[in-house]
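Hey, quick one: can you model this chain's 3D structure?
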Amino acid sequence: MNNKIDRDKIKQEIVRKFNIIITDNDPIWNLVALNNAVIDQYLEMVLSNLDTFQLNLDVVHERHLKQIKADAATYVGQAITEALRVAGQADGENRKAFAGEVDKQRKLLVAAMADNIGMMQKWMWVSLGAAGFSVVGLFLMFLLIKFF
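Sure thing. Here's the predicted structure for all 148 residues.
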């Protein structure tokens, strides 16, 4: 760190507060320099510890997120298993209704995924077209500059 201390400011402050005049050759400046060196070293240690602490927090955060995702997958799986078990115990009519509802939701999910894939393909073509127009535009600019 080694920040330069403002001796004039310190001298003015001591005169103002304690009515004591300190010269530039006063031995008290040795203590001020020593104090400044100790503070700089301590500050470096604190900043190093903060960096280590931040890295540890990042690791803990990632571990926690992975655990939450794993727990969520487990709980969703258990809920689906329990729902299927309950549906399996239901009578024939309710079982058919449940199976129909599950099939309906599956079809909706597949349709939504197909729509998303279709949208992604359209945007891919739009991006490719924009890139093509950019290349053509650059080529035309090259021709204009070269021949005109």
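One thing worth noting: The CA atoms of residues 6 and 12 lie 10 Å apart.
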